[in-house]
Amino acid sequence: MPRRLVILGSTGSIGVQALDVVSRSDEGELEVVGLSAASGWETLVEQARVHGVRRVALADPDAAAQAAEAWTDGEVLSGPDGLVTLITEAGCDLVLNGIVGSAGLVPTVAALAEGIDLALANKESLVVGGELVTQLSEATGAAIIPVDSEHSALHQLLGAERPGTVLKLILTASGGPFRGRKAHELESVTVEQALAHPTWSMGGKITIDSATLMNKGLELIEAHHLFGTAYDDIDVVVHPQSIVHSLIQLCDGATLAHLGYPDMRVPISYGLHYPERADVPVRALDLAELGALTFEPVDTDTFACLRLARDAGRAGGTAPCTLNAANEIAVHAFLNGRVRFLQIAEVIEETLTRLPEQPVHSFDSLARADAQARRLATELVDALAPA
Ligand code: NAD
Ligand code: MG
């Protein structure tokens, strides 16, 4: 029997690469039974045609109406409820969540609550949902298989280790396009410069997060929840070549690393086939050709977002949710030319200062914290950039 997949965010960078992995899989291994996107209905319908999918969901109701009119071979679901229906009624074995932002939390919860395994690229749902998400996965027995390259690496490295033997997780960071610069050199960087990532080609939001190092901050919180590791035991090291995807340090002095050329189809394939492995058309690693791999400490004075994320993670409660919401608003404002690069961190810090962390009792309290942080961060952006 093929593994039945629902791919959320199939029109994005992760989604398109996931469909490529599916196309290359052996006959009868993987079958796509549902696809979703925000509003890009033409691409979504085309993907459904190519992959023989009969049901899609669009978050935007207008786009859903247009898709329903143009595509008569299948069913188009609409809005947040449509996304949940797509997941719960597909009879699927695995959901790949490739949505960007905290909009990914509802579908993450829907899949786990149904006991459906989750291949998780949407790190924001774990940053925001934290313990509530991991507790749900434990309660229903649905597995979370990380797709983020660093966490996929850690998942593979930790697989064979017994509890109590791992001292530290080490996340690698490329350092982004502004590695080595000081704050005064970042004052007037442009959107175009921030979008020019040196090693990975990704969606706009995560590319800006990589330039501010907020991406590594979100990944720190993600690793804490995925692997139950204390923040003090998760280090970050800058590694500009993005060949080493992460490392673990063990009690006997051994350090294990996961290496490969940067290609998201590798962790996507791992997530879709786990615990099996399948061929991915990437070049075999040639260390002699690479010659040198370099590492350097991370500069959290310049890249304040990583410090803010570590502090929010340690504070717990609603703090990571507030951090994430303020970041989404600030990054959006930066991409639209409304705030400057360094003001992203300023907006987030101010939002966190004015909205101190509260305990989290339910997903509803997280939704309220998310909305409150978005409102405040929007006000702060408006004050910096009057319309
Ligand atoms: P992207 O912007 O390229 O694609 C996002 C997808 O989500 C699109 O299909 C879009 O239509 C959909 N979407 C956006 N907002 C939505 C909403 N409100 N409701 C429903 N669907 C919505 O993003 P991406 O780069 O593919 O990243 C997706 C996720 O994977 C992010 O959480 C990112 O951090 C993570 N990730 C991405 C990469 C990468 O290489 N792109 C690597 C590691 C982790
Ligand atoms: Mg990553």
Outline of the structure:
The chain is α/β, with parallel strands linked by helices and 387 residues long. It is built from 16 helices and eleven strands.
Tally of individual helices: 16
* Share of β-strand residues: 5-15%
Mean pLDDT metric: 97
How many strands appear in the DSSP assignment?
Answer: 11
Computed Rg = 20 Å
Label the overall shape.
Answer: globular
Helix content: 40-55%
- Biggest beta sheet summary: 7 strands, parallel
Distance between the termini: 56 Å
Uncertain regions: pLDDT < 50 for 5+ in a row?
none
* SS content category: alpha/beta
Bound small molecules, which ones?
nicotinamide-adenine-dinucleotide, magnesium ion
Topology as a string of helices (H) and strands (E): EHEHEHEHEHEHEHEHHHEEEHHHHHH
Please tell me about this protein's structure.
- With 387 residues, the protein is α/β, with parallel strands linked by helices.
- The protein is 48% helix and 15% strand.
- It has 16 helices and 11 strands.
- It has helices at residues 13-24, 41-51, 61-70, 79-88, 105-113, 123-140, 149-158, 191-195, 204-212, 214-227, 265-273, 287-290, 304-315, 319-335, 341-354, 363-384, and strands at 3-8, 30-37, 55-58, 75-78, 94-97, 117-120, 144-146, 166-173, 234-238, 244-250, 255-259.
- The strands form 2 sheets. A 7-stranded parallel sheet has the order 4-3-2-1-5-6-7, sandwiched between helices. Strands 9-8-10-11 form a 4-stranded mixed sheet, covered by helices on one side.
- Helix 9 (204-212) crosses helix 14.
- It is globular, with a radius of gyration of 20 Å.
- 47% of the residues are buried.
- The mean pLDDT is 97.
- The chain binds nicotinamide-adenine-dinucleotide and magnesium ion (MG).
- Magnesium ion binds next to helix 7.
